Batch of 2 targets.
Target 1
Amino acid sequence: DAGVTQSPTHLIKTRGQHVTLRCSPISGHKSVSWYQQVLGQGPQFIFQYYEKEERGRGNFPDRFSARQFPNYSSELNVNALLLGDSALYLCASSNSGTGPYNEQFFGPGTRLTVL
Amino acid sequence: AQSVTQPDIHITVSEGASLELRCNYSYGATPYLFWYVQSPGQGLQLLLKYFSGDTLVQGIKGFEAEFKRSQSSFNLRKPSVHWSDAAEYFCAVGSLLQAGTALIFGKGTTLSVSS
């Protein structure tokens, strides 16, 4: 079975631009979470979606938004990019519900560089 | 607030030697604890998890971890390290949100293996 896939792999943007990152969960998984990993740090939680509804939001500004589609894939959107948004963006999926006991499977990430 | 501390930023171990990576957590209720490994340019792979029961948990690749409630610790161990174990290791706690779950990660420990 295919794992979590993310696109694009790498992305370079300039300050003020908008970016959309995409994630396809493992087949059958209904929950998708997004994390930001700045170089040298652990991942930081941004959003969790389950059955197309937002189930949690981390401490990120409103420039960050996300949605989940009927096929359970997800998009993360970031507006008005700042240099500090440069990071590896990780998507994770889990197969049942949103409880902490549900293992989250991570994709390889999208490396965003903001110049 | 929930948090995870990994006191060691970088550890170097000789191949064949034993390994212990430290993790301390702060969480009000019974913690859901995880160890993940991240190889360069890769996403996160789950090594093991603890929810309840036996405080010594076995994981993949020969890793184990011991939950000690009195010390708020969940240290990762391996009796004999292989060169392929060189990677970044993250400890995480599952944090219950209003309707979902977020993983809270430590800053990670970089493991180097010397021959």
Target 2
Amino acid sequence: KNQVEQSPQSLIILEGKNCTLQCNYTVSPFSNLRWYKQDTGRGPVSLTIMTFSENTKSNGRYTATLDADTKQSSLHITASQLSDSASYICVVSAKSSGDKLTFGTGTRLAVRP
Amino acid sequence: DTGVSQNPRHKITKRGQNVTFRCDPISEHNRLYWYRQTLGQGPEFLTYFQNEAQLEKSRLLSDRFSAERPKGSFSTLEIQRTEQGDSAMYLCASSLNSDLGEQYFGPGTRLTVT
């Protein structure tokens, strides 16, 4: 069964600090891995998409890494801001028609002033 | 607003009633997806369309659920004889016809079955 696990479940950091979120997956055959940001009560918004051959991708203060051998990914947030408070969801796509996504349960990040 | 829109945003219904949700994708997107998200969980795939064709349905989609995309534009998701376990956020997403196409999500419809 395709699965995506994330850690930690929740995290509280002070504004301006950095943090790293983890993702392990068992989706096979692997196509791509995405990180989404989801504000409470809103739909997810894509941050990064990485294929098998990519091991790092940045989007502003967000940097995602991918190790396809160990099936692990991380999302690093630099110089956190209050607006970074949200759930961050790791999403993996298998090679199949339609790009069906398998979502993790997310890490809920709270940035405090 | 040129993003994905969903209506209604919130729906409260009594157990046993039928409900229908609507999703309007980004206009040039030919793929449309429905997901369900319960509190504290990530979204779960329900079904997807390429143009008007429904190409895949999850086993989560029981016989009480039906989705249509009659003209390859907007889509509707109907739940018949709602149960309390159907209470969730129903998310719609659309993308271009590509396995790396970014899926753009709508704001969701939150269903509460009492």
